[in-house]
Amino acid sequence: AASRFKMLFGVLGMLAIVISGRADGCFRDAQVFLDMGDGDVKLVTVTQDNILVITPHNNDEKWKVEAPLNETDGCTAIIDFNVPGKPNPPPFTLLATQYAAGSNDGSMAEVVWEFTNPSGATPATPLNEWVMYPPQTPKNGSSVWSCPSYGAPTVSSGQLIVHDIHDGGEKVLTVVGKTILIEPYKNDEKWRVLATLDEETCTAVIYFNVPGKPNPPPCPLTMRWWEMQPELRKDADTKVMLEFSDPKNACKFDNPGSPLNVWIQEKPSV
Asked: What average pLDDT does range 229-252 have in this prediction?
């Protein structure tokens, strides 16, 4: 994992981030996104003709994906990555949905592209997430929410089922007071991680190096709670994104604070 993360975050110092906001619609600026699944960086642009254009960024690949952006049902596009020059494209088209993510105190916002397989057996399961970095300061303010959040609707507070974008599979988080318990979900692994939640920043320091946990990161990671909602669908349910970073560069992945992985709430809390 370390070599993957170094490759991803070593290029960030050369990126020219373009953030100027949105005009009552989808986020349309040319913007670089960290691809949590592939471990590289993509450039996403929306043309004046409402065409979503995706290209590689800061590597030797030469390919381009174009798709109409649908603003009638949120900010979505059907993406076919099977284009000349694109290595290892998915064997099916994907639905890309633009989300707005916000921190608990309303001070930070991120744009997130989520990819799902609308024709699959579990069409709502997130297959990949592209995350804006660094976060921006909301120009018109952002909603404030109590930490921790369990998404909406919440069947019962205290537990989250999340999909691990980098490692695959699911995890279950149980929160009692300020104590977080993380365990594998629906597999044969047997391990437990305990952490303390800082409710003011909605973060926790996570030590994954515990007995039974395969391939743990070489240092503790900071997990930040975000709420996310599809753009242009303010009546849609919110869900939780848990973003992992290494702010102190203890893992030596470079570019401290950049997202290393995200866990996405896959279904309403149980």
From this structure: 89
